[in-house]
Amino acid sequence: MRLTPRRRAWRDLALLAGLCLPLYFWGLTTHGVTNWQEAQRLVVAREMQARGEWLVPTLGGRPYLAKPPLVYWCQLGLAKATGGPVDLWHLRLTVALAGLLGVLATYGAARVLVPGPGAAPLWSALLTATGFLYVRSSRIGELDILLAPTVVAAVAGVALAWRRWRETRSVAYGWLALGALAGSLAALAKGPPALLVIGLAAYGGIALHAAFTPAEHREHRAPSGTRAGVVMALIGFLAVAAAAALNLGIKPDLGGYAGVALLALAGAALADVLFRLTDRERARRLWCSLAGTHPLAVLGVPALVLWGWYRAVESRVGAGAAGLVSEESENLALFHPGAPLANLEGLAYGAGLGSVLGLAALVMLARRRVAPVRPEWFILVAWVALGVTGFSVLGKGVPRYLTPLWPALSMLGGLLLGTLIGAARDRSGQRRLSAALGFVIFGLAAGQAWWYGHAREHAPGSRGRSPGALVAALRAQGFGPDRLATLEFRTPAVDYYAGRTVPAVGDVRMREAMAGQTPLELDEFAGLVRRSGGPWAVLVRAERGRSVAAGAPAERLRAAGLAVRELSEPVPEFVIDRGRTRVLPVIVRAAP
Q1: How far from chain centre, in Å, is Cα 25?
Q2: C-alpha pair distances (Å), 510 with each of 69, 333, 398, 429, 488
């Protein structure tokens, strides 16, 4: 019996939910806190709960405005619903739910952007669900996964409004309201970068459609843009090279030169698009499309929401809020030479099978091997191409920043799969191809569910990455959070397991706003130990081949007037610096 479209949609949604439940939710807390971002989100949310605070995120009692509050609100809401303190389960549940919603939103958006034969929307969502970095973001408490459902819903709302405008020349206020609402949530999740992705995807796609769709009237012929592209490429090359030379922390290498070349090519392509839009007919078409999709409202409302939150925070903490927010701008790196190559690397594997198929679909679309080209496909192309270009120009090349691009890449992959399946000679051939692909996707889902839900905790490379066991062992020996410190490093994971902010001593190589405290000088810490009248456990980096009590960190403690000794009993392993450096406790007290 053939299913109606509505029943088929419900069946697909049930299949996707059944796949995602073990993939994202099995063994949520099997693996301890090892990720810096995850630990920071936990510590901030827990502190907000302890203070009864919902408006101003705080760290160490200070306003912490590096990120907007949505991820903290989710943790606080789940903790309130379960009636307990904020813990790891609430954060991991937040990101798992965001991952699930992102997959379901991808399915809904794909029904608009890549409808057609071969169940392309279902394949799009399945590819998104099993993408390597998408799964990782849905299992580890980083806030980037919150952009998946929100950005997808916002772009889909604009796409639906654009289609209504093209077909009936009427404004679809309901779909635009969806775009503004989803955009507001995205802005509250990660701020301006979220709005950048939405704008580049939705309205960049509309601009690409206007630029590359043949004009109906030829009163004015635009220049080819070739010369302008060469000029733009030279300007881009010189600008990026100059930025790299001025950035003393970056040494030119092969990856840096490749990044300069990639950005220069992007500049050339952008110049070609802009010159195409100087054609009067194309410019008129773009203007009409923008008038029917109201970018100022769709992007302006989320910007006002974010500004309103900031103003409310400023009314509570004073004018210093501006400085706290501006510190986050240090994460921006304009024309970082290594970013383009790093982002292309992430693009090549981040969406798993969806990356391979999506990039292949981009090549086929660029070579016009798929016809006829639907207007909505320009949104997918802009979503990926302009999105990765934007992050390459403004970012440092961190793959997880590309999280809101994985659904678009997977939708392109779903488009290719749908086309291939639909082109099969007969129904039996379609079934065999679908079964083979389904087997591969099920294998990817099962393997990743097993890894994150069980195996990761026992893998040699993961051993000792969480300080939970070490902090518990020290607590059992009488060194509670009021007698615990770290020397010349700081990780919020220790704070989380200790249950309070652990004093950091010496140069932790971190801004105070990010550390949540002013690190103590060695002399200040020595005075604190003397006043406390008892021993302290200090976590220090262990040097290879030397006893921890005879190493350089211990000698610096002795020079400050403290007696230092090792623990008589072995303690659980704890490593930092991506597993390269072991951390061990030394016991200090005031020297006699």
Answers
A1: 19
A2: 22, 17, 19, 58, 10
Q: Which helix (H) or strand (E) holds 566?
A: strand 562-566
398: helix, strand or coil: coil
**String of DSSP letters for 206-254:** HHHHHHHSPPS--SSPPP-SHHHHHHHHHHHHHHHHHHHHH-TT----H
Question: Please, what is the Cα angle at 506 between 502 and 507, to 5 degrees?
Answer: 110
Helices 522-532 and 552-559, interaxial angle, to 10°?
70
Residues 553 and 555: their CA atoms lie apart, in Å, by 5
Structure token digits, residue 216: 């109906």
Q: Is the peptide bond before 295 cis (omega within 30 degrees of 0)?
A: no
- The 10s digit of each residue's pLDDT in 391-416 is 988 888 889 999 999 999 999 999 99
Model confidence, pTM: 0.92
**pLDDT per residue as tens digits for the range 27-71:** 999 999 998 999 999 999 999 999 999 999 999 888 898 889 999
Using a 10 angstrom Cβ sphere, with 0-12 exposed, 13-18 middle and 19 or more buried, the burial of residue 224 is exposed
> Do the Cβ atoms of 375 and 295 come closer than 8 Å?
no
Q: Are 561 and 526 in contact (CB under 8 A)?
A: yes
**Is 24 within 8 Å of 48 (Cβ atoms)?**
no
